[in-house]
Amino acid sequence: TVVGNTVTIKKSYLAQQSVGTTNxxxxxxxxxxxxxxxTVSDTTPQNSxxxxxxxxxxxxxxxxxxxxxxLTLNGNTLSTLTNGAATLTAGTDYTVVGNTVTIKKSYLAQQSVGTTNxxxxxxxxxxxxxxxTVSDTTEQDSxxxxxxxxxxxxxxxxxxxxxxLTLNGNTLNTLTNGVATLTAGTDYTVVGNTVTIKKSYLAQQSV
Length: 207
What we know:
Blueprint: E1 2-3, E2 6-7, H1 11-14, E3 20-26, E4 34-40, E5 49-50, E6 54-58, E7 67-72, E8 78-83, E9 86-87, E10 94-97, E11 100-103, H2 105-108, E12 114-122, E13 128-135, E14 143-144, E15 161-166, E16 176-177, E17 180-181, E18 188-191, E19 194-197, H3 199-202
Parallel strand pairs: 6-13
Antiparallel strand pairs: 1-2, 3-4, 5-7, 7-11, 8-9, 8-12, 10-11, 12-13, 14-15, 15-19, 16-17, 18-19
């Protein structure tokens, strides 16, 4: 805009120029043009970057491993790491050496199975998130719905004994009584997760 002898170059125009020098020529009705050299800079904070935004961690003891993430800081510094409202402890939960952040397996092993979102917070720019998929392939024991049962050998009172299994990813291999292996289909049956021990087998056992 021009008001009297004052020319105002609008910030909206200048914001469109590339970083560097913009030479504006003032051209007049007579005489030589005059140049205004505008040095355009950009001090807008740049976001830092993570070398990866996803990772995986297995809670099974033998498979546990630290997770290392390399930072591209873009002029910023790392302030904190947070997991929701909780702030991780530097030196214990993670370490920083140069631009590499190592999240300790001891910390990750405490997280629940699922996704743990770790926020990397910097001195400027937006926080960056590492989504860690936490799994656990540790073998789990199967469970029985009951660990005791009773059987009356009196003929009229005899009844099969049914037990429901919680397999926890396992399969039933055999039923044994001491060194003797029971015969599937004869001594017991399996339907879904229910094992039924036949009264005909139980009646053969000693009191």
